[in-house]
C-alpha cells in the first residue's frame, strides 16, 4: 500500500490522511499533527511519482488540501521528521526554498527572472507588504512591533552600518520599489542611485521620488548591476544577492569593489543558509516563484569577498526575523485573498500562499537565515565596536563616522 511509504518517514508526530470515501488513516502518533485531504486516491500516486514538484503543484490544482492546522501544520510535521526525508523528497518543497539549477544568469535571463516575479501586479504587493513596499526581511526590535515599525527599523539598522554622512554618494543595487533609497536620502541627506530590472518597480520608484520631492537627490535606473559605472561612498543591496546565482557570485563582489570609492563601505543583506551548500536541484519555488535564484552558505560567499581584497568588517545573522515577516505578509495576503482570486485566479492564490507559508516554515524550523555583511575598503573605515549600530539617535549621521576617525588617530599616536 502506498501509505506504507509514509510509515518509514514519520517517526515523530502524526499525519492524518482523509480519503474521498470518508475513510481516515493515521500514520505515527503524538504531536505535531497535520491533516491532508485527498480529492481522489490517485493523488497519492501523483505525489509519490514526482514529490519534489508534485506536492506544490497538486496543492495549486486543488488535488489535496490541508485540514486542521492548515499548511503550517504540515510543514511543521515535515521539519520534525526532516532527518528521514534525505533520500525521498516528499514534502520537501520548503527545504528547497529559493534553490535553482538555472543559475547562470546572463543579463537577459536576469531581466526575465525579475519580470517573472516582480512585474506580476503592483496592486498585489501593495496589499500584502507594508506601506513603504519593503519586500525583504524586517527587523523586529521588540516582540510587539508591527510590520511597518519593523521595516523602518530594518532601514535604520542598515543606514547605521553604512556610516553615512550628508552628501555621500550611495548606490542601491536591487532597489525594489525605492523604499530604502528614499529613506536614506530623506533621513541622511545623501544622493542615491537605485538599480532595478523590473518595469513596474522602476516606474513606481520614479513616481515616488517625484511625489516626495526627492527626485533631485534620488535617481532610479533600469539597469543591470554589471553594466553600471561610477564611484560611490556607500553601496547597499537588500534582498538581491540571493537572485544572483552561484556562477555570478565573484562578479557581484568584484563589481561592488570596483564601484566603491577608496573610503567606501557596503552592506549586503541577503538570505543565507546556516548549513552547508546544497546540490543543484530545480525545485517548485525556482519554477513558480524565483527562477534563477540560489541561497548561499557563508562558505560560498566568504572566498569571493576575500578575493576582492575588501574587509568583511561586520557580519550579523538575523534569525527568525524573516519567519515573522512572512507571517505578517501571509496574514495581509489572506485578508485580501478574495480580491486576488477575482483578479488573478484561485490557482494563483494557492501558489502564493504555498510560497509564503513554505518559506515561513523553513525560516522558522529549517536552515535559512539572513546575512548582513558589512564590507569596507580598509579595516579602519568603520568603527571597531558595534556601539554606533545601537545609539539612541539613529538619524544623527555625523556621529556615525566619527568613531572610526578617532580610532585611526589613536592607532597612529600609539603605533
UniProtKB/TrEMBL annotation:
Residue runs in coiled coils: 204-231
Active-site positions on this chain: 359
GO biological process terms on file: lipid biosynthetic process; methylation
Entries under SUPFAM superfamilies matching the protein: S-adenosyl-L-methionine-dependent methyltransferases
Pfam families noted in UniProt: CMAS (PF02353), DUF7884 (PF25371)
Keywords: Coiled coil, Lipid metabolism, Methyltransferase, S-adenosyl-L-methionine, Transferase
Gene3D superfamilies: Vaccinia Virus protein VP39
Molecular-function GO terms, alphabetical: methyltransferase activity
PANTHER family per the UniProt record, alphabetical: CYCLOPROPANE-FATTY-ACYL-PHOSPHOLIPID SYNTHASE
Protein name: Cyclopropane-fatty-acyl-phospholipid synthase
Upper classification of the organism: Bacteria, Pseudomonadati, Pseudomonadota, Gammaproteobacteria, Salinisphaerales
Amino acid at each position: 500500500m502506498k501509505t506504507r511509504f509514509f510509515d518509514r518517514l514519520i517517526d515523530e508526530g502524526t499525519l492524518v490522511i482523509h480519503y474521498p470515501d470518508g475513510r481516515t488513516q493515521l500514520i505515527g502518533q503524538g504531536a505535531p499533527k497535520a491533516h491532508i485531504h485527498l480529492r481522489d486516491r490517485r493523488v497519492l500516486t501523483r505525489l509519490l511519482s514526482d514529490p519534489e514538484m508534485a506536492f506544490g503543484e497538486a496543492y495549486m490544482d486543488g488535488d489535496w488540501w490541508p485540514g486542521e492546522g492548515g499548511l503550517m501544520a504540515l510543514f511543521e510535521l515535515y521539519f520534525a521528521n526532516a532527518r528521514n526525508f534525505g533520500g525521498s523528497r516528499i514534502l520537501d518543497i520548503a527545504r528547497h526554498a529559493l534553490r535553482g539549477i538555472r543559475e547562470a544568469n546572463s543579463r537577459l535571463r536576469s531581466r526575465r527572472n525579475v519580470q517573472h516575479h516582480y512585474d506580476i501586479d503592483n496592486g498585489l504587493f501593495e496589499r500584502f507588504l507594508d506601506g513603504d513596499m519593503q519586500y525583504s526581511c524586517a527587523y523586529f526590535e521588540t516582540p510587539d512591533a508591527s510590520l511597518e515599525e519593523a521595516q523602518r527599523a530594518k532601514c535604520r539598522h542598515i543606514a547605521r552600518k553604512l556610516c553615512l554622512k550628508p552628501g555621500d554618494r550611495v548606490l542601491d543595487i536591487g532597489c525594489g520599489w525605492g523604499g530604502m533609497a528614499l529613506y536614506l536620502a530623506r533621513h541622511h541627506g545623501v544622493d542615491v542611485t537605485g538599480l532595478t530590472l523590473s518595469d513596474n518597480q522602476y516606474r513606481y520608484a520614479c513616481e515616488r521620488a517625484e511625489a516626495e520631492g526627492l527626485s533631485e537627490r534620488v535617481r532610479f535606473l533600469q539597469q543591470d548591476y554589471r553594466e553600471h559605472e561610477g564611484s560611490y561612498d556607500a553601496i547597499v543591496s537588500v534582498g538581491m544577492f540571493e537572485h544572483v546565482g552561484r556562477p555570478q557570485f565573484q562578479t557581484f563582489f568584484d563589481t561592488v569593489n570596483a564601484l566603491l570609492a577608496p573610503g567606501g563601505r557596503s552592506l549586503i543583506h541577503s538570505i543565507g543558509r546556516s548549513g552547508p551548500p546544497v546540490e543543484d536541484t530545480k525545485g517548485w519555488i525556482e519554477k513558480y516563484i524565483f527562477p534563477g535564484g540560489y541561497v548561499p552558505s557563508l562558505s560560498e560567499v566568504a572566498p569571493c569577498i576575500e578575493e576582492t581584497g575588501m574587509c568583511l568588517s561586520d557580519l550579523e545573522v538575523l534569525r527568525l526575523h524573516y519567519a515573522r515577516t512572512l507571517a505578517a505578509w501571509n496574514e495581509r495576503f489572506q485578508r485580501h485573498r478574495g480580491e486576488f482570486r477575482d483578479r488573478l485566479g484561485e490557482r494563483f492564490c494557492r501558489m502564493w500562499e504555498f510560497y509564503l507559508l513554505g518559506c515561513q516554515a523553513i525560516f522558522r524550523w529549517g536552515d535559512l537565515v539572513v546575512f548582513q555583511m558589512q564590507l569596507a575598503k580598509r579595516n579602519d573605515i568603520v568603527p571597531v565596536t558595534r556601539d554606533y549600530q545601537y545609539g539612541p539617535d539613529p538619524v544623527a549621521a555625523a556621529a556615525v563616522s566619527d568613531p572610526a576617525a578617532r580610532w585611526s588617530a589613536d592607532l597612529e599616536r600609539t603605533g
